[in-house]
Design a protein that fits this description.
There is one protein chain. This protein is mainly alpha-helical and about 100 residues long. The chain has helices at about 5-30, 40-60, 65-90. α1 packs antiparallel against α2 (about 40-60) and α2 (about 40-60) runs antiparallel to α3.
């Protein structure tokens, strides 16, 4: 693989993660309901980056479209569960910090 074949998807992923993180950053400017600190942005960025890299690797390594679909939805499901646990503590675990 050439460097450009690896670099281009990484730049796209970083761009998508940055765009998604602009949503809470913008919301913080208009309301007091969203109160994120630097650690929140770092954790959210890390989670999103890991999920998107995992999906990218799934699309490279999985042979069948069904495998790609199933594994991608599994990664997204795990991402959503972790995000919800961190946001509101749906499971009530110490992982949520409550």
């Amino acid at each position: 693989m050439q460097d450009s074949q690896i670099l281009r998807p990484m730049l796209y992923i970083i761009g998508i993660v940055a765009f998604v993180l602009l949503v809470p950053l913008t919301a913080m400017q208009f309301t007091d309901e969203v109160q994120w600190g630097a650690e929140d942005f770092a954790l959210a960025g890390g989670l999103l980056f890991a999920a998107f890299i995992s999906i990218y690797l799934i699309f490279i390594l999985a042979k069948c479209k069904l495998e790609r679909l199933v594994f991608s939805f599994a990664v997204l499901g795990i991402l959503v569960l972790i995000w919800l646990e961190l946001a509101v503590g749906i499971f009530g675990s110490p992982f949520a910090g409550k």
